[in-house]
Amino acid sequence: MVDKFMAQPVILRIFGFSENGSSHKEKIISAVGGFIGILAVILVSQLFAGGTSLIPSIGATAVLLFAAPHGRLAQPWNVAAGHVTSAVIGVTCAIWIPDITLAAAAGVGIAIGVMHLMRCIHPPGGATALVAVVGGEQIREMGYQFVMMPVD
Predict the structure, then answer these.
(1) What DSSP character marks residue 70?
(2) Summary count for the chain: helices (H), strands (E)
(3) For 150, which of 19, 49, 55, 83 could close a Cys bridge (C-beta 3.0–4.6 Å)?
(4) Would the CA dihedral through 65, 62, 20, 123 be positive or negative?
């Protein structure tokens, strides 16, 4: 009998492709969950903030929460602390490091280090730190308000 792994084309093995053990039902539920989750965030932000408060890294968070909910990176502490910590670090780097290239690199690098120390690794947090630095004038003007209200 041929091992399933060996039956895959070499190129797929090189890139780490593997079978997805999720059922079709689980895949549909996670997709619908992602849709409902992002829709809820948008609607709540419009209700309370008067506009859409959303950053792109929330989309990546939705993938982790709904496609891999039992994974370590999708746990509440990782999600909340990872985003908040990274936002604070990103804003701080944007304020204190005048060169945007260095500020962006420092923001992401420091965020990774601090997330490790706080045991709250959440990959979308790296994007949150990056957006705080390179997200444009509107985000720069918000300063630390960006931490709790990402974008108007």
Answers:
(1) T
(2) 8, 0
(3) 55
(4) negative
Contact between residue 90 and residue 107 where contact means Cβ atoms under 8 Å apart: yes
All structural domains of the chain with their residue ranges: 71-147
Q: 2-11, 83-92, 97-106, 137-146: which range is least confident on average?
A: 2-11
Q: Are 110 and 139 in contact (CB under 8 A)?
A: no
Query: Residues 41-82: pLDDT tens digits?
Result: 889 888 877 776 677 888 999 999 999 999 999 999 999 999
Distance separating alpha carbons of residues 133 and 150, to the nearest angstrom: 12
Question: Per residue, what are the HEC states of 39-80?
Answer: HHHHHHHHHHHCCCCCCCHHHHHHHHHHHCCCCHHHCHHHHH
Q: Tokens 């895949």 — which residue? A: 27
Collapsing DSSP to helix, strand or coil, 2 comes out as coil
Burial 120-142 (b: 16+ CB within 10 A, else e): bebbbbbbbbbbbbbbeeebbeb
16: phi > 0 → left, psi -120 to 50 → alpha, else beta; which?
left
Structure token digits, residue 25: 């039902």
